[in-house]
Design goal:
2% strand; mainly alpha; 7 helices; 190 residues; elongated
Length: 190
């Protein structure tokens, strides 16, 4: 820094000799970039309209566009006409089909109790293949399959929410033949 000159930037002028010993001047260079920067008047977000639309008006316009496109708003479930007049959901049909299959399984095992070993073998194989921790329904099925056969038959043919849940993970795969299974599936397709 020099005390011989005073001023900013390129505008230096020499100090008179009588003042050089009294004044110590620091030199500052100030650079302003804002006068060369392009100023934008844009704001972030959606451009403003002169007359903003309320949320209710936007919703009315949205619904009108949907109606004009041929769509109608759904307020309740109604069965589709022309599908044979189904009155139940697909889940109920699947649950009923599973119940029918397990009734047939119970009938076959009652005639041949050795088929129960197939369910136990399936469950043991699943337990060996699964990684820890095992699903809770494995333990439930292990407890059920340790009971006497009449109690097992009652559990797999029961019409309760718990029985429906258990039948969805049934270890009785392979007890019915492919023809028996197809016969039950065909009955529920109609």
């Amino acid at each position: 820094m020099s005390a011989n000159f005073v001023g900013l930037g390129a505008n230096f002028r020499p100090l008179p000799p009588e003042r050089r010993d009294l004044v110590t001047v620091a030199e500052f260079i100030v650079t302003r970039y804002d006068k060369w920067m392009k100023k934008t008047s844009k704001r972030r977000g959606r451009p403003r309209k002169s007359k903003p639309v309320t949320a209710a008006e936007r919703m009315r316009a949205y619904r009108k566009r949907k109606r004009d496109a041929g769509l109608k708003s759904v307020r309740r479930w109604e069965p589709v006409k022309g599908e044979g007049g189904r009155q139940y959901s697909d889940h109920r049909i699947l649950d009923a089909r599973s119940l029918a299959m397990h009734c047939k399984i119970a009938q076959k095992i009652s005639q041949n109790p050795e088929l129960l070993d197939k369910a136990k073998a399936n469950l043991n194989r699943w337990c060996e293949k699964s990684k820890a921790p095992q699903p809770y329904y494995f333990r439930e099925w292990q407890e059920i399959l340790e009971r006497p056969w009449p109690q097992i038959a009652e559990v797999i043919t029961r019409m309760s929410e718990e029985a429906i849940r258990l039948r969805s993970s049934s270890p009785f795969a392979g007890v019915l033949t492919a023809d028996e299974r197809e016969h039950i599936y065909a009955a529920f397709r109609a």
